[in-house]
Specification:
Chain lengths: 186, 741
């Protein structure tokens, strides 16, 4: 069929062929851009959530603002050093990573962590009521204990409302407030 | 030569350019990310969360100071003065700061309860619906005139609802009375001022900030008198006047208060001689014709005064009195302040007149240069302020109760603590078939109630307060909920509106609003077009500005000086104060004074206030009796001796504190301690001196300062918690008022 098309109408054949090539090119470029868009730039220090949770650290130990304010907070260097001045891993590679932290501490230079999840400025998200309402960290941030760096989720409005509707079904008296625009957009 | 581009080349080129731009644009966006920079070492006081400040009104005393409350994630964390409020301009006293303990008090009732039988403290929780139905039935069965209300002074929005409610039911006019208003002479001063200026009762403001000489007759204006924060601010201004002028300030009182300690001269006159001493000062000014005083129309008021006799009775030297009389007469910007102590003796009515006459003699209280301002009329009749009732009104209510005329009594104060035992309120209360209390924490009176409808704390409810005495400008303080109510409690205003709705008829006609917010909005609509710091073009703008600013005030208008000259009938007689127990083995005069923190005892359930040291003795938590060292030596008493203090009307036990700044013939006891109920911090701490005061009245006012006492050592000692011995909290903990660590 392809050969017959080529024989009967070489111009159409070439047009289709070039069209396919261009289409593939665009798809490849799109895929490439998409992976770049959801890939995070490297963090300034090689920090692993998995290692810390395996060692027994609770989420709220390093993110204590989570049950009292809008943001969970990133631990200060002083808090990191509270443990790390006493920790000597056997693995030299791990020690090399910790040395980078100690170098920052010695220089009293704050770490510029890269923000993973963010909400636009017209959304007033607050962690406190979610924690007070019994929502677990994993519900929105995934199982952080299995990864070095939490994945970036597509936390759009539909995703919020799915959960708000579910809670509203269980507690009808809260439904109006949970679905009110001004709950988050004010 | 120009080579023209054909159609195909144009598309190729533009496509390429577009793709490049898109790609490069994407690349730049992809590289953009936000970083978070945590502290290296966090500051000590860094707290997570967002802070919001709400403007409201303090309700710890009737002054009506503006407050702002810091709310962090829905919790009230700190109370400060509202910097914009014209009365207190950002200042706040210890009682105002302690308002958080009203909100978070662990002894607060969390729902409506019934108590059967009364006094058993067996409380049964009740749904609000059932509670209000029961109260409605009781009111319907009470018949005309069978409903009465007794409340504290200083909740104007509540009074604006209660007044019409009781009136619609044909009851006795509501009685507004408490220990604080009695011991600060609030009613007598308002009444006297109203009488001499021919206006309705009005609390004047004495502008000491521009004064040259201030003679204070027992006015402890930086502690509890009328509006302590406004006076504290004015006192600071008085001491820092232009060109280094700091005024001369003389305090006449038998026991040095902390206000007296700031005076240039403290003159310990005998209790009850405030009026006679004021008359003697006036007499000296007239006799010596200082600044032409002999020609003053008020000179005749002092005609019958014998200075020598007054000097003898008051126990002051004539030279000293003459010196300050001349100083007072020479400067036109002088002021005489009628303090609370003036109102507690048998000669209170003439004493109040005498001090106002002394002001009038030197031209104060009249004309544009007067430093005496009257509280302006409200901007709309809807905002009628309340005046404290007289003690006679309380006795009239007590008589009606005792006669069985009252079927339902609403109590929104603590008369069983504030009034002397001999006034018979407890016996009269027992004759009332149904007593409704609104106490947030079960106090002495609520313990004798049939049903308690606990009120919201003032940080959880709506209201307003006419600022009286006003500061520089006419003002209404606005109160709004700064947090969600913690428990299933209700605003008392809401309760009365709800009851009116259930009763229907005249009550519903008088109070047509379904809730307090609608009532507030309807009242505030009267401010449309009034000058204010915010727009008042329509009710919605007022509602917004009112809540943002914490009330309404008009800074374009200064407070008014009286329009007419005072008219004082005279001559004013020198009346010797009469004391109960004279010649009956009671050697000492009793001088009860308001504790700066606990005031009349309403602050006793707030541990910050219990722990706050008295400024003169540094004592806290307990009740002490102040004795001159000479008196203590005569009786063989030391610091910490426990004595039985007996008046003709009862006795209390108190711990001796030897205090040099008190007359040897006087013993002073702070008011506020000695609760039997009122929560874990108040109950069982100290003794209630109000209970042993005489129940008599003269001229409509309670003779609370009119008794003599005797002291008997009980042969034991008790350590008084003080800053120096550092046993404040520890002693409270041992006594079980606060839990052990």
């Amino acid at each position: 069929m392809i050969t017959s098309l080529y024989r009967q109408n070489p111009r159409l054949f070439w047009a289709i062929a070039i069209g396919f090539v261009v289409l593939f090119g665009i798809l490849a470029a799109g895929l490439f851009l998409a992976t770049r868009a959801f890939a995070m730039p490297p963090q300034p220090l090689p920090y692993s959530h998995q290692v810390h949770i395996a060692a027994g650290a609770q989420c709220i130990y390093c993110h204590p603002g989570v049950d009292s304010g809008p943001v969970a907070g990133i631990p200060s260097l002083a808090k990191c050093m509270g443990c790390h001045q006493n920790i000597n891993p056997q693995d030299p590679a791990a020690q090399a990573d910790i040395d980078k932290l100690i170098a920052k501490w010695d220089a009293k230079e704050p770490v510029q962590w890269v923000k993973i999840n963010d909400q636009p400025d017209f959304v007033h998200f607050n962690h406190r009521p979610h924690i007070a309402g019994g929502v677990a960290c994993e519900t929105c941030h995934g199982d952080v204990s299995q990864v070095d760096q939490p994945n970036r989720y597509n936390q759009n409005m539909g995703w919020c409302l799915n959960c708000h509707r579910d809670v509203g079904r269980e507690h009808p008296e809260k439904l109006t407030r949970l679905l009110d625009c001004a709950t988050c957009h004010y | 030569m120009t080579r023209r581009m054909n159609r195909r080349q144009f598309f190729q080129l533009s496509g390429l350019t577009g793709a490049t731009m898109a790609l490069s644009g994407c690349t730049i966006n992809l590289q953009k990310y936000e970083t978070l920079e945590p502290y290296v070492v966090p500051p000590e006081e860094a707290l997570p969360g967002e802070k919001v400040w709400y403007a409201s009104t303090c309700r710890q005393c009737p002054a009506g100071c503006g407050i702002i409350v810091r709310i962090s994630n829905g919790r009230a964390k700190k109370i400060e003065g509202n910097p914009r409020h014209p009365l207190n301009r950002g200042r706040l006293c210890a009682r105002g700061q302690s308002g958080l303990h009203v909100l978070y008090n662990p002894d607060r009732l969390r729902n409506a309860v019934t108590q059967q039988p009364r006094g058993s403290k067996t409380f049964t929780p009740l749904q609000w619906e059932d509670a209000l139905t029961t109260v409605t039935e009781r009111i319907q069965n009470a018949g005309p005139g069978g409903v009465a209300y007794y409340g504290r002074v200083g909740d104007d929005s509540l009074a604006a609802v209660v007044g019409p409610f009781i009136q619609a039911l044909g009851g006795l006019a509501p009685v507004y009375y408490d220990g604080l208003s009695a011991l600060t002479g609030r009613n007598l001063l308002a009444r006297t001022t109203g009488e001499i200026y021919g206006v309705a009762p009005n609390l004047p403001f004495f502008d000491i900030s521009h004064a040259d000489v201030v003679l204070s007759f027992g006015a402890n204006f930086t502690e509890t008198w009328l509006s302590p924060v406004a006076y504290g601010k004015a006192f600071g201004a008085m001491r820092g006047q232009p060109n280094g002028k700091r005024a001369t300030f003389v305090q006449f009182e038998p026991r040095m208060s902390s206000t007296g300690a700031m005076a240039d001269k403290w003159i310990p006159i005998s209790p009850g001689t405030e009026g006679p001493v004021a008359l003697a000062i006036g007499k000296i000014i007239v006799e010596e014709n200082i600044n032409g005083a002999a020609d003053s129309p008020y000179a005749g008021l002092f005609a019958g005064v014998d200075v020598g006799a007054v000097v003898l009775a008051a126990g002051v030297s004539e030279e000293l009195l003459g010196e300050y009389a001349r100083l007072f007469g020479r400067f036109p910007n002088s002021l005489a302040l009628p303090g609370g102590a003036t109102a507690g003796s048998t000669n209170s009515a003439s004493a109040m007149q005498a001090i106002m006459a002394l002001n009038a003699l030197i031209g104060q209280g009249n004309g544009p240069n007067s430093l005496i301002y009257l509280t302006p009329q409200p901007p709309a009749p809807a905002f009628a302020g309340t005046t404290a009732s007289s003690y006679d009104d309380v006795l009239a209510l007590t008589d009606k109760m005792a006669a069985g005329d009252i079927s339902v009594l609403f109590v929104n104060g603590n008369p069983l603590f504030d009034l002397p035992v001999e006034a018979g309120f407890a016996q009269a209360l027992a004759r009332v078939p149904y007593v409704v209390s609104f106490a947030g924490v079960v106090d002495e009176t609520a313990a004798q109630a049939d049903i308690i409808l606990p009120e919201n704390s003032y940080l959880e409810s709506w209201g307003y307060q006419m600022v009286s005495p006003s500061g520089d400008h006419p003002a209404i303080s606005g109160q709004q909920p700064v947090v969600q109510p913690l428990y299933d409690t209700r605003s008392t205003t809401d309760v009365f509106l709800d009851l009116a709705d259930r009763l229907g008829g005249p009550a519903k006609q008088a109070l047509p609003w379904p809730n307090t917010v609608d009532f507030m909005k309807a009242t505030l609509a009267a401010l449309v077009g009034a000058p204010a710091p915010y727009e008042t073009a329509n009710p919605a703008k007022i509602w917004g500005g009112w809540r943002q600013y914490g009330g309404w005030w008009d800074e374009s208008v200064s407070a008014e000086t009286p329009a007419s000259a005072p008219s004082i009938p005279g001559p004013i007689a020198v009346e010797r104060p009469v004391f109960e127990g004279e010649g009956g083995g009671y050697p000492y005069l009793l001088y009860p004074y308001l504790n700066v923190a606990l005031s009349d005892g309403r602050g006793a359930n707030q541990p910050w206030l219990q722990e706050a040291p008295d400024p003169m003795t540094t004592a806290s938590w307990k009740t002490w009796v102040e004795l001159n060292p000479v008196t203590a030596q005569e009786l063989g008493l030391e610091h910490g001796s426990v004595v039985k203090l007996t008046s003709p009307y009862g006795y209390i036990d108190a711990i001796v504190y030897i205090y040099p700044a008190i007359r040897p013939d006087v013993v002073a006891v702070p008011v506020g301690g000695g609760h039997n109920e009122y929560g874990r911090f108040a109950a069982g701490n100290g003794a209630n001196v109000l209970a042993i005061l005489p129940p008599q009245a003269s001229g409509g006012e309670w003779n609370w300062a009119g008794t003599r006492v005797k002291l008997e050592p009980l042969g034991r000692t008790e350590q008084l918690p003080r800053i120096e011995n550092n046993i404040g909290v520890e002693s409270a903990r041992e006594a079980g008022h606060i839990p052990l660590r």
